[in-house]
Design a protein that fits this description.
Length: 402
């Protein structure tokens, strides 16, 4: 079975083609700067002898139509597929599914109109997803297509966890509530954790930490998400690359009054100029780490703030869950930054969390256990694979519905 995973943004399209027999990647690529004078396309694939090949091109790509046509042409020219009808399914990543989608959905007119209706809740993401989806349905009308929502995994949050203490009418009328994001990653790593620990996922309690440029924590009880740090939008929660995470909302009124900042300027500042970048000028944790080791105080402060916020969430979600079987670190920072793992879990022995320094310092491309043997809570590092999770969910949906 061949499943194509598409992640269409406003000016980019990421794609991965999986052979679901062994979950291997037949091709993967990125088309960037769509609609700009020059766009770039890069695709990696295995040729017929199993050797990895890379194609890179710079050329004008006017819109999503053009981008998907170019992607299909490259997949066919490189011999990865003969035509699009060879695909058994296409899985589309969608960031915001609101309250409408608690599970993957077969793409049809209704699903596309709902994704469109949800644009005000995800103005930066849903329009790109929708354009990619419409073009893909047009180009491959006979291939089943599935929408996979980042928010769906968090649809199991209890109401007291997803409500904000604002006048109720804003929930009633505008659906302002916590939705949570990164659900595909949290779901993937908790499934992997259950497999690794040989524990039934339906009895597994976990805290999953997805630490990339965007970062979020989820509290998972009996395999289901019961709380998560991102909210109505991905802005809430942890200190992130360029997002502030939790702040006192009154700071915004103060800044507006003192500095005359407009709503758009405040939005930009919180989403693009804050977080690690706001504190030390960089949002790349590798560079921040290097600067901190060289004695740069703001870089060290940025790391300390990042780890401190993380520690607070680990504590809070330990309280939410009562019993925690495992903590999972994932994402670029979670998978690679051993100091972040050490610092955020330090002095949490009272919560049953004990890190083994030697194990934590090891590097692996697979799953690692970094807690001591006598740690009540197992601490794991699990590389995330959101594309594979989308492919698996797409396949499961197609098997159920087609
Ligand atoms: P995205 O959210 O863009 O998918 P990633 O999951 O790729 O992000 O994570 C990006 C972050 O991971 C960056 O801050 C980057 O510096 C950090 N990172 C990647 N590799 C390492 C490493 N070896 N050590 C520390 N941080 C790393």
């Amino acid at each position: 079975m061949k499943i194509l995973v598409l992640n269409a943004g406003s000016s980019s399209v990421k794609f991965q083609l999986f052979n679901m027999q062994d979950n291997s990647v037949l091709a993967s690529g990125l088309i960037e700067q769509i609609s700009e004078p020059m766009s770039r396309i890069r695709m990696k694939y295995q040729d017929s002898t199993g050797i990895e090949q890379v194609v890179e091109q710079t050329l004008p790509i006017s819109d999503h139509h053009d981008a998907l046509r170019k992607m299909s042409a490259l997949l066919i020219e490189s011999g990865v597929i003969h035509n699009l009808n060879e695909l058994d399914g296409i899985g589309h990543r969608v960031v915001q599914g609101g309250a409408s989608f608690q599970a993957p959905a077969m793409v049809d007119e209704y699903v596309m109109s709902e994704i469109e209706r949800l644009i005000p809740l995800a103005p930066l993401h849903n329009p790109g997803h929708l354009s990619g989806m419409k073009v893909s349905v047009e180009q491959s009308p006979s291939v089943p297509q599935v929408a996979i929502f980042d928010t769906a995994f968090h649809s199991t949050l209890p109401k007291y966890a997803y409500m904000y203490a604002l006048p109720y009418k804003y929930y009633d009328e505008l659906k302002i509530r916590r939705y949570g994001f990164h659900g595909t990653s949290h779901r993937y790593v908790v499934k992997e954790a259950a497999r690794y620990l040989k524990q039934d996922i339906h009895t597994l309690n976990a805290i999953t930490l997805h630490l990339g440029n965007g970062a979020s924590v989820a509290a998972i009880e009996n395999g289901k998400s019961v709380d998560t740090s991102m909210g109505l939008t991905p802005l809430e929660g942890l200190v992130m690359g360029t997002r502030s995470g939790d702040i006192d909302p009154a700071i915004l009124f103060y800044l507006a009054r003192k500095r005359g900042l407009t709503l758009d300027e405040l939005d930009h500042m919180l989403n693009k100029e804050s977080g690690l970048k706001g504190i030390c000028g960089s949002n790349d944790m590798r560079e921040i780490s290097r600067l901190a080791h060289e004695g740069n105080e703001q870089a060290q402060l940025a790391r300390d703030m990042f780890n401190y916020r993380l520690k607070k969430y680990i504590g809070a979600y330990s309280a939410v869950l009562g019993r925690v079987d495992c903590i999972v670190f994932t994402g670029g920072i979670g998978e690679n930054d051993s100091e972040t793992r050490k610092e955020s879990c330090s002095r949490l022995e009272n919560l049953g969390i004990k890190i083994d320094a030697e194990r934590n310092a090891l590097r692996s491309s697979g799953i690692m256990q970094i807690s001591t043997d006598d740690s009540a809570v197992k601490v794991l590092v699990i590389p995330t694979n959101e594309e594979l999770e989308i492919a698996v969910e797409t396949m499961e949906m197609i098997e159920k519905h087609c």
